[in-house]
Amino acid sequence: MAPIDDAKQGLSGIGRVDLRGIEPSSRGWEEARAAVAASMEALGAVLVVQDALSPDLRRALFGRAMPELFALPLDVKRSLVSGHINGYVGPRPSAPSYESVRAWETTNGGAVRNVGDVLWPHGGNPAFWYEVFTTSCSFSFLICLLTHASCCPAFGLLLCSGTVSAFATNMLGLQRKVGTMVLESLGVGQGSLGSHLGSLSYSVRLSHYGVSEAGGGMLMKSHRDPTVLSVVVQHDVEGLEVQAQDGSWLAVAPQPDTVAVLAGELLAVVTNGRVPACVHRVSAPSRRERLSAQFVSTPKDGFTVRPVDELVDADHPPRYNPCDFEGYIRFRYAGEGRKLSDPLEAFCGVAKGP
Questions:
Q1: Is the pLDDT of residue 2 over 60?
Q2: Exposed, middle or buried by CB within 10 Å (0-12, 13-18, 19+), for 326?
């Protein structure tokens, strides 16, 4: 597959690239890589046509699992809070209609199982386990599911579906593919690329936006994510908007075969500023509830984020000091960073001369 011909980039729109069947060293890789990189370097965002989410899985995720999750009592959802960006996030002044749940380390079966145990201690929602956490396809996680099969026989049926491993492999592979394309296009060697990919942890955030009382306006104000990359899967209701270089806003229409991949602040650090963190927001153009699912990468515990060596030289001096992820999260959400328009720059940006 080649990049879609009618894709617009730069100031006028977000690049849309078909990555179905595209693999490293295959025909079309270099062309697709160039298109992905051009859009990411311009806006910190690219639209990717993919086959990671089958129609059946999409219907089950947005049609049953997520509605049942967000219909749970508030005290149950609040029991998931375990940090500034983990667990349950409820409505707040900057996003009064927004709530979300993050399942941390979705490639680690134990962590995923713990979230399920809190929400459904008796295995009451097997669909949630399947549709949301199928990224956990390790042997240990399958053993966890089998262990719970006695209290919920439906687990046995769920394990029979080949969609489990397909969703896990393709969604994780899709994000890694985009990250690889971006770094390769900038001249990062395979050694540094492998080290970067090996330093990442993954999670799923499920988001629900209620109907805006005003019947319009913003569901979430403009912001940048404290992540490396986010794959955003929208349901039927529009709302995601990406800011262009000229300050205008580009609407991202929900399409079943297309996801939005957004660069986070930490990718800006990794690329020494060559890829900007995507500025985006969520509008409320219609009086309907909105659901979205994000597959997110952040550094593993103990890893410090810094610019890749190949991207720092005399022509490209370092723009960021090494960034301690946990320290940055505390600064951004519980410290002075809450008051700043660019907390990343304040936390680890290299001071510019007079």
A1: no
A2: middle
User: Residue 264's closest CA among 231, 230, 304, 303?
Assistant: 230
Instruction: State the residue for tokens 């410290």.
Output: 335
Q: Is the pTM of this model over 0.70?
A: yes
- From residue 22, how far is each of 3, 14, 27, 183, 310 by CA, in Å? 10, 20, 7, 16, 25
What pLDDT band is residue 54 in, cutting at 50, 70 and 90? confident
* Residue 283 backbone dihedrals phi, psi, to 5 degrees: -95, 175
Tokens of 250: 């580009």
Give CA–CA dist 43/36, Å, rounded. Answer: 11
| Exposure letters 58-80 (e unless 16+ CB within 10 A, then b) | bebbbeebbeebbebeeeebeeb
Helix (H, G, I), strand (E, B) or coil at 192: helix
* Burial status of residue 215 (CB atoms within 10 A of its CB: 0-12, 13-18, 19 or more): exposed
Per-residue pLDDT for 194 more than 60? yes
46 close to 36: Cβ distance less than 8 angstroms: yes
Per-residue pLDDT tens over the stretch 124-153: 555 454 444 443 333 334 334 333 433 443
Least confident of 47-56, 110-119, 166-175: 110-119
What's at 248, amino acid-wise? S
Nearest-angstrom CA–CA distance, 144 and 152: 12
CA 153/CA 169 separation, integer angstroms: 25
Query: Comparing C-alpha atoms, which of 175, 192, 178, 174 is closest to residue 39?
Result: 178
Residue at token pair 């599911």: 145
Cβ-contact 2, 28 below 8 angstroms:
yes
Which tens digits make up the pLDDT trace of 22-53? 999 889 999 999 999 999 999 999 999 998 78
CB count within 10 Å of CB 225 equals 24
* DSSP H or E segment with residue 234: strand 229-234
Strand extents, DSSP E, 188-228: 200-209, 218-223
Q: Read off the pLDDT of each residue in 243-251 and give the average, rounded to a whole number.
A: 94
User: What does residue 339 show for φ and ψ, rounded to 5 degrees?
Assistant: -95, -5
**Higher-confidence position of 104 and 155:** 104
Which residue in this structure is represented by tokens 């959802």? 77
